[in-house]
Amino acid sequence: MLPRREHPLSTPVAPAPASRYTEAMTTTPRDAATTPDLTVQIAATGKQSLALRNPVMTASGTFANAVEFAHAIDVQRLGAVVSKACALQPRGGNPTPRTVETPAGMLNSIGLQGIGIDALLRDVAPVWATWRVPAIVNIVGERIDEYAELARRCDGVPGIAAIEVNISCPNVENGLEFGSSPHLAAQVTQAVRHNCGLPVIVKLTPNADAVAVARAVQDAGADALCVANTLLGMAIDVRTRHLVLPRGSGGLSGPAVKPIILRLVWEVYRVAAVPIIASGGIARGVDALEYILAGASAVQVGTASFRDPNAALTVLDELTELLAAQGVTRLSEIVGAAHGTIEAHQDGV
Ligand SMILES: Cc1cc2nc3c(=O)[nH]c(=O)nc-3n(C[C@H](O)[C@H](O)[C@H](O)COP(=O)(O)O)c2cc1C
Questions:
Q1: Which of 8, 30, 31, 156 has the maximum number of C-beta atoms within 10 A of its C-beta?
Q2: What CATH number has the domain bearing residue 155?
Q3: pLDDT tens for residues 279-298?
């Protein structure tokens, strides 16, 4: 029998100071008869809270910094947008080819190309500040003090609603990925937590013991967990007999990873004291609903946006329809609902 536990979203949370995002959420009119309540409270600690109108976000690295898409889709309808990984300095990324199509997804080895924090704060955050959709900055560093500095620079900046900490990056001091060790991941989380009052989301890697890392980072002050980054994979060109990607391996994403990450969300939910944001192969509303039933409070749409920039909105519309058809009135009531079924099976019900 699985241990029964209260999900953080089903228990009352201490009132958080109002932010632009909580106010926006509570003042949105809703037709209760036809539209399910999709609002999600991602974080209620720190100086600010993060409340979303709906659970559908874009995934880091697959939607640029969102401003590039604002002319193409109605980004304001999304639950949140997440920036490309941002480092202290601009980065050119790896040589090409950096992506490979696979039968059910893609491999990438972009190498964390990005504009750097100065340009992000100067050119992008002021645009976000005029938006109603919250923007989350995905930060990445090669040393713990780099994460601390990035957090400090983002703190209190208008337009930045939260930080997502990308720990899938090697620590230059020992070559180990921060996300591969609960101890290192906790140190990064603590450094970010201590340097900003923004909600802190830590993005786990599936290439390590994600459950142990989840425990460590939530103890270190993470407000939410993103499960998960890409899975390690490889491709070989049979004509040249060379590895296709410049670094040999890359990150696998897309429909192929969904069952693997779904199980990971399930496992992390069993130990999570904070909300989970799922990321892995979500392209349709039904994918999002599966993740929510496994324990996710929100979802991110990544690779699917390369095929169709409107994919995240499709996920949102389909999810809304599915919930309405199932008579669900509040999304938060079904987070983790599939966990009860395994208990029922085990009890012989
Ligand atoms: C081309 C590409 C670039 C990515 N860049 C980042 C990044 O900068 N930071 C990050 O945390 N995750 C990054 N990711 C991982 C995605 O945000 C997402 O977690 C992952 O692709 C799984 O979701 P999906 O299957 O919906 O794509 C990237 C993924 C892809 C495909």
A1: 8
A2: 3.20.20.70
A3: 999 999 999 999 999 999 99
